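so my prof wants the structure for this chain in the tokens format not the other one, which i didnt know existed until like an hour ago. anyway here's the sequence
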Amino acid sequence: MEKRLERFAALVGEDKVKALKDKNVLICGLGGVGGTALESLARSGIGHFTIVDYDVVEISNLNRQILFTNKDAGKPKVEAARERVQTIDESIIVTAFDCRVDDNFLTRISGRKFDFVIDAIDAPEAKVQLIKHCLANNLLFISSMGMANRLDPTAVRIANLAKTDTDPLAKKMRMLMRREQIDLADIPVVYSLEKPLCKGSLLASVMNVPSAAGLALSSYCLEKIQK
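here's what i got, hopefully its the right format
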């Protein structure tokens, strides 16, 4: 057992932790939510990640996105994220896609085996495409709803999409998934009970809530793939 994983193994058992080395987790979106999920899973022993994001690191990201520092400004997020993960454990394999999640990307990954998929994308249409891909291919997954415009990390919850409320993004996702005739109970999500505190085109945010969601995603992922 690796020294850095001893305390996790004391919680769940050495066999479960050792098995994580062979798991491949797909994380789509590397912002405040997806970035924390990636960091947590890397520190928990996952051995292979496939990461997807089309954006570059901006200084305005640094108040809430755990993967990045000033030195990363201007870099593709997937490049900076891969470097960050490999400072935790250089043996972790990171496959990076600097692109959007769309039909072209989903075609590129068709047939690849993923042990778990985390949706931390902002765009509703892309979220729908990714969720449909997971359901069609029997992939374990969880999707994050909106975490901006909130302050309370203790309001973050896990449920299925049918049970969400207070969240404008979840409301839109419920509408879009019903249009696709997909049962909302089949879609596990992380969401916040806290109503958005402000409105407007600028998504206000501080690290606490997105990171709480990222940790919830990581916890759910570890629970499901260790069974």
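also thought this was worth mentioning. The beta strands are 24-28, 48-52, 93-97, 116-119, 141-144, 156-160, 188-192.
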